[in-house]
Amino acid sequence: MCQLEVLAQTVNTQAQTLSRSWHEGKDHALSSCDVRRTTIPPLDSAGEEARNQLLTAIRTLEQLVLGPKDTFQSYYFKTAEAGVIQALCQLQVPSHVPLYGAISYSDLSKQVGVSEDRLKHLVRIAAVCSNFLAETEDGQVKHSDNSLIWQLDPLTATGMEVMLDHLPLSSFKLGEVCAQDPKDEKQDVCGFSLAREQPLYAYLESHPKEGRNFAAHMRAQAVQYGDSSVQGCYDWTTLKGKTLVDCGGSFGSVATAIVRKEPTIKCIVQDLPKVVDSAIKATAQDPDFPHDSISFQAQSFLEPQPVLADVYLFRMVFHNWSDAGARRIIQALLPALRPGSRVICVEYVMPPIGTAPSYAELATRRLDNMMYTLMKGKVRELNEFKELFESVEPDLVFTSFKPGQLRATHDPRCHSMMEWVYKPSSTPTDGEAVSDREALTNGEAPTNGEAPTNGEAPTNGEAPTNGEAPTNGVALTNGDALTNGDALTNGEAFTNGEAFTNGDAFTNGEALSNGETLSNGEILSNGEALLNGEALSNEEALSNGETLSNGGEILSNEEALTNKEVLTNKEVLSNGEAVSNGEAVSNGEAVSNGEAVSNEEALSHGETLSNGEALPKV
After folding, report:
1. For this UniProt entry, which residues form the secretion signal (predicted)?
2. What secondary structure letter does DSSP report for 185?
């Protein structure tokens, strides 16, 4: 039996199975004007599989019968046919054709403002080539199965119009995209932005009507299967009493589905300010919205995450972004992660080539193409997701995967679930620095991988315990984070050996104000100086920046005594006073050889003496 006969037999067999599935569901025919249906009827599992196999066989059979040349020609014919449908939609022709009955070309021409002759050509092209609109026996225009959606589901129809307006034009810019950004490093260089001279969302914002239509279409898609899909993709009962942040959560439909499944979860829905404003207004009027469980917050997932939550949910986010953009999203989470924090992604996951039924791979690769064309997005394989997270934060450990359904067409039942848990690989001991990914937030920091609290710091190389901070005199102040083993002064962080003074960075031994010190012989405030890293105080050289008490005893960790009281955090005496043998020198007087200079000998503006020589103000 030749391939043509095999395919024909497959079509016949699968069509019979599909027909039985519809018959058992009391649906005896395909969508038609008689039943006014815009989607196929519900199917059992056998019917679903038969439909998938039938679509694959029909496509293969068509290409086999056409041959390579005619198959290739069909690509640009279909593109041109899509242009005809786009023109009819732009003219609002489907909206003027009545749901029941028909309308004459003459009347339709007057309503849409196009000549009767041109209108007739457009309608007939769409009807014959795409089964979009139709004619009655007496030559009037009526709806076909495919055009009914403009009357029965205008919300979905307007979303489709947005795609018809932009996707074909944008797709022909892909060659330019690859030439301008061959490594996919520029998120805004995509087919849409080159075609419209703006990224998609910027364009929709500057064209409010299209923006509203697009947003409504996306919400409608999410709602169609969204609740059951989200509720079934994860065991939400394991998060009893937890806090979940829905990143990019729009109007909160996903969060609503989650709290209806597990009411004790507290959800924070984050999105851009305009979206949040609209969401708050919309949900305020909804008596069924779970206001006690869901709140809204204006927050971009490209900015550092401010909320310390148990779970961070990204539903249908990452496929909008290139790898470079996706890494920014993950990076923005790091300041909020604590041991045990979970990151859940609900996404389309691309099956590796050749490993899934062709209908499922075809549908997903079509989506991959559309996302790259419109937004520089990407539909990733599971291993690509793992590598993406690993490249940003190795301590985000991949823990579970629940694949979505393999289907020939897209809906939320195709979404897969992936989960990562933050498991720090080590905690700082014996002077080890707190790493960037263990940065402190809201005064909390690591103890066995958690952050030190209350800004407490151990000294002399003691290990951090019970919320205390890292060692060797490197202290945390006000719960701020240490990075790369550097120290904090007055709550300001030193990074890569640079010192901050009032938030300004000084590098390579430049002078600091406010009592901070410099190495290699540079000037210290309070009349002290360093020589080759040793502090001179009372004419005695101290190593490691140590100072002397009244009795000449060495004080560690740069602490100073005045009247036997320890000044911490490199504090100095008020009003520019200095310490000489533990006594305060007032009113900006200077110290020379450890002795106070009287008022007559005082240097102006708080200048100090070193061995009798005036040093400039620091």
Report:
1. none
2. -
pLDDT digit string (tens) for 147-166?
999 999 888 888 888 889 99
Residue 562 tokens, joined? 């005045």
Tell me the per-residue pLDDT of 360-416, one tens digit each, with 9 for 90 and over. 888 889 999 999 999 999 999 999 999 999 999 999 999 999 998 877 666 667 889
- Gap between the Cα atoms of 7 and 120, Å rounded: 37
Q: Which of 166, 217, 319, 415 is catalytic?
A: 319
Domains of the chain, CATH where assigned: 3-152 (1.10.10.10), 210-225+237-422 (3.40.50.150), 426-493 (no CATH), 508-615 (no CATH)
How many Cα atoms sit within 13 Å of 208 on the Cβ side? 1
Asked if 143 is an active-site residue, the reply is no
- Report the pLDDT value the prediction gives residue 138, as an integer from 0 to 100: 95
Other Cβ atoms less than 10 A from the Cβ of 432: the count is 15
Q: Which of 373, 378, 314 is nearest to 345 (CA)?
A: 314
Per-residue model confidence (pLDDT) at position 575: 39
Q: What residues have CB less than 8 Å from 350, skipping those under 6 apart? A: 361, 364, 365, 368, 379, 380, 381, 384
Find the angle CA(189)-CA(194)-CA(197) to the nearest 5 degrees: 105
Distance, in Å, from the CA atom of 154 to the CA atom of 147, rounded to the nearest integer, reads 11
- What is the rounded distance in angstroms from the CA atom of residue 594 to the CA atom of residue 158? 83
CA distance from start to end of the chain = 94
Q: Which residues contact 51 (CB under 8 A, 6 or more apart)?
A: 14, 18, 40, 43, 408
Q: What is the pLDDT of residue 294?
A: 98
- Residue 347 gets the label, from left (phi > 0), alpha (psi -120 to 50) or beta, of beta
CA distance linking residue 526 with residue 514, whole number of Å? 10
The letter for the amino acid at 43 is L
Q: What is the pLDDT of residue 52?
A: 87
How far apart CA 374 and CA 201 sit, in angstroms, is 10
Are residues 440 and 448 in contact, defined by beta-carbon separation less than 8 angstroms? no
